[in-house]
Design brief:
single chain, 12% strand, globular
């Protein structure tokens, strides 16, 4: 019998295969008639937060930069008042999502599939704030204490070079340079050493079917 309202999270560097395996998991759940919700849960980029930013842009007009990476956006975030406000609002939104919305989904019997989760956000924040600043933040402490913990948390990874190659091949917008991808994967490995995920899987040189079988078995063992 399936665990009611289970939760599964996929973390990892860009182009490590998260979308591919989330799609396979969706198909698997649909065949088994399991109701689910897929949620993009990267801090500062949730659907609720994006809607709020569009509203601000609408009233702010040309004064605000467009969505995505840009020099204008980077310059704006150099102002402490702006970066701090963004940080506080992003954390409040994640508390809403991770602590309350996900528990409501559980009560309603939905299995939640998270495209990125709390430690992906932590890594994102590390590029704007120091690790010490983040970990000493009251809102971050609250978030890490009350967020809903996944039943299965997966960390998928490839080398920074392969991540960049795949991103170029897919013509992804706002592609990060190799140096930043290298810094990201180092942070992911550091967190993995601290056992932030149930399982870590290298997807670089394995067949998709092989990786999917490992993921499916891990999920089946945890929630069925």
């Amino acid at each position: 019998m399936m665990k009611r309202g289970a939760m599964i999270s996929f973390s990892g560097i860009d182009s490590s295969g998260k979308t591919t395996y989330i799609t396979l998991l969706k198909n698997y759940f649909e065949k088994r008639r399991i109701k689910y919700k897929v949620v993009w849960s990267r801090g500062g980029y949730t659907s609720f937060f994006e809607a709020a930013k569009k509203l601000v842009r609408f009233f702010g007009g040309k004064k605000l930069p467009k969505s995505g990476h840009s020099e204008q956006r980077d310059e704006m975030f150099k102002k402490k008042s702006i970066s701090k406000t963004w940080y506080i609002l992003a954390l409040l939104d994640l508390i809403r999502l991770y602590a309350f919305t996900f528990r409501i989904y559980k009560l309603l019997g939905f299995t939640v599939i998270c495209d990125r989760y709390i430690w992906d956000t932590y890594i994102d924040f590390c590029f704007q704030f120091s690790e010490d600043q983040i970990e000493k933040s009251l809102l971050w402490k609250i978030l890490t204490r009350i967020h809903r913990k996944p039943d299965v948390s997966l960390f998928l990874f490839v080398s920074p070079e392969e991540s960049l190659r795949r991103s170029i091949e897919k013509r992804e917008p706002f592609s990060e340079p190799l140096e930043k991808r290298t810094s990201r994967i180092e942070l992911y490995f550091k967190l993995n050493d601290n056992e932030k995920w149930n399982i870590a899987i290298c997807t670089e040189s394995r067949e998709i079917s092989s990786v999917w079988q490992e993921i499916k078995e891990t999920i089946d063992n945890a929630i069925f």
